[in-house]
Amino acid sequence: MLLCLLLGVAYAAVLYLLRRRKQEPPFGRGLTALLFALRTLSVAAIAFLFLSPLVRRENNRKERPIVILAEDNSKSPDYSPDSAYYHGDFQQSLQRLADALAGDYEVVRYRYGTEVTSADEAEGQPLFGEKSTDMAQLLQTIGERYYHRNVGALVMTGDGIYNKGMNPLNAASSLTFPVYTVAMGDTTQRRDASVAGVRTNRIAYLGNNFPMEVTVNANRLGGEHSLLTVSRDGRKLFSKQIVFDNNRFSTTESLVLDADRAGLHNYVVEIAPLSGEQTTHNNRRVVPVEVIDGHQKIAIIYGSPHPDVGALRRAVEQNQNYEVETFAARDFKGAVKDYDLLILHQLPSKVAESNIDVAALLKEGTPALFVLGGQSDLARLNALHVGLEVHARIDRTNEVGALTNSDFTFFTLTDDTRQQLEHFPPLLSPFGDYRLGGNAQKLVTAKLGAVNSGLPLVAVAQQGERRYAFVAGEGLWRWRLSDYQNNQSFAHFDELVDKLVVFTSMRVNKNRFHVTVPHVVSETEPVTMEAQLYNDNYEMVNTPDVELTLRRQSNGADDNPEGAKRYLFNRTAGGYSLNLGLLPPGSYQYSATTLFNGKRYDANGTFLVENLHLEALQLVADHSLLSTLSDATGGAMVEAHDVERIAQMLKERDDLKTVIYCETRYSDMLNLPWIFVLLMLLLAAEWVIRKYNGEL
To answer: What is the pTM of this model?
Structure first.
């Protein structure tokens, strides 16, 4: 800065002082001094700006403690004797609590049930309208949305009953703020009989028998009796008189039913209502069972024992449509034609004692899923011409992660499964140059470190009427364990394997128009449908419109034949899709039509929307869970009638304080507009003075 000032002085001295000595100055002494000062400042400022100086700015922001008020919006309060209080006075008490807290804290309100919604999103929606309760989702959502925020406390209303999601105590273990619970509901045992549970296979095979277990509970009905019945399509299949021999009664009835008709059937399990019951919504359960004509056999053949084999078998067996057998390659003596799919783990193999003639197995026309690894004989695999070739110059494996391919069209994975795949541990993939056949597609590509290599990690191919699938890496057992570690279930890994098995084992359908929809959908889940249309070369197209006609049925008859609803499918990269949203419980019949190249194509089918009545299955409030949740997080539980007392409890805490965030920023001084204005004023002032006095 001193050098800049000296430069300005030197420039002004040359301009004004040296000229003053050589000739008569046009200005007086005072005016010369003023011009000297103006030129010194302007030159010094310009020189200083060439140094690119930075301006430091500090901004202090205060954040008051956030108090989150989350209200139970499930149907369970409607089943309570205090239902009128929860709809009226209790809502006013909550509002008074929010008003009392608003002076010292930032109050944010949510509702929770099946989903977590903010108060603004829930405005206008009916109170206590959710059909299930997921307390863990609320705790996880609040923890994620307010991570590193100044959360003072979570005030949560509820009866302690959850029927969806994980245990809320596990979800609360990572919270950094106290949870105050407001105990709703009634812990008193009241007169009630219920079908507490029905266990049966969702899939049965035509001509076989299948078991069903029915659990009946009864409270305060000692000495009375009722009739338990199981019926299908209005025909009674089973009945038994149940005698309640004590006031806390529970029994399980085991029965065997005949799968004598193919199709999707609704089995109605009902306990006859008794006078004085608290509710009769839990006296009836509808259980869908799909009776299919035959099932598929799958053989898992491995070169050497490997934990992948067990992981694959458990994942495939989740689909009851499959019967799985495992064989060591040297022990396999079965007839390939007896199986609908071969899963070949590291076959063909480089290990001599593990060899099997894979080419001979494939001659029978059975589709196959190949799992590659360090023991795979890549040269023999290439000779099979199954849609994937790996040309390796050295014998080694790489650790590769997974990246899902959004352009894959043969089938779809849920968004959650795609995200989970990318966080699974790496597989050991053979090193080499991977080449896919022209009709093959990559579902998952290999990631080397943080770089997408573009090489296939999971791929499928179709050759004529036969399909193949490939997993180019061993270590799938790690994926399954990681799924459970992260999500407390194997659902995402099992979905990937199931989709691969279903696609590969399915014989190519020569029908040109297909519509797929789950046979059974919960009333709390949106119904989504997909459609595919193929041209003469069996290439997927989506140029014509696809219309859907939907009818709701009851007891095999159309509820309202003239009230059929019509929809238009949306076009997607994989064909067509349609989201019907949430539908009322019941059986539905659909008919999809399209017109392509002057020819009409139709697809028909049925599906069921289940009526769960989850909130009516358990009516006795679990206040002990609420108390444990509050104690574990440093909060407290209060009764619903004392909800306003929470305001004083929070004010007595000394850890709910305002946080001051100090933010420091640096910006280039050249970006300050007043610097430009100042320079222009200095130069303009000097120019005007010189001009006025007759010299430029």
So the answer is: 0.57
